[in-house]
Amino acid sequence: MSILEFPAQQDDNTAEPLNFGSQEQAAGFVLRIAQLAAFERFFALFPAHDIKISEYSVLVGIALNPGVRQGVLADFLKIKWSNMTKLVRTLEDRTLIGRRVPKNDRRSVELYVTEEGHKLIDSVSQDMETSDRKAFQMLSDDEHTQLLVLLRKVAGWPPRGADAKGPQ
Fold first, then answer.
1. Strands 110-113 and 97-100, sheet pairing
2. Which residues contact 17 (CB under 8 A, 6 or more apart)?
3. How far apart are CA 94 and CA 14, in angstroms?
4. Quick one: residue 97, left, alpha or beta (phi over 0 = left, psi -120 to 50 = alpha)?
């Protein structure tokens, strides 16, 4: 049986699994399909909020890294600089973030989250966590932890929290 089975869209409502051969053993291919499936489940579960997921990710990144520069955040999140400029402008227009020029380097601009931005994070964060966990409910807690460890490794991110300790 195929690792990946996708119901083919047919007029008679019958589903046949599609075979992708060696692609099913290609980590990048399976990761991309898993990403799309996870996003689909996540967005179906995530309650409506007045913020896009990409905006929320940038907002949280700024909140947890006050003073971060826009380019550094864009590079870390793999967002094109031109797209990051639009995201930052949107968040700034909504008074969720602000910019300030540090006294020690007048050429750079630091980002910070406003009080309004912190309130929005507080109102969205629980729904975000709940929706994410429900989107991956087919995984046990150990599998979920292992998935995060492996994804962080693939992303080139250092271990965090429980996965920083390594095998016990």
1. antiparallel
2. 1, 2, 5, 6, 7, 8
3. 47
4. beta
Q: Which fold has domain 41-135?
A: Arc Repressor Mutant, subunit A (1.10.10)
What pLDDT does 63 receive? 98
b or e along 74-87 (b: 16 or more beta carbons within 10 Å of the residue's beta carbon)?
Answer: beeeebeeeebeeb
Ordered by start, the domain boundaries in the chain are 1-32, 41-135
Pure H helices in 78-114: 81-93
Identify whether the C-beta of residue 145 lies closer than 8 Å to the C-beta of residue 162: yes
Separation CA 122–CA 165 (nearest Å)? 29
User: Could you tell me the two tokens for 56?
Assistant: 């929320």
Q: Where are the beta strands (DSSP E) in 68-124?
A: 97-100, 110-113
Average pLDDT over residues 47-65: 91
Helix (H) or strand (E) holding 165, with range, is: none
pTM of the model: 0.77
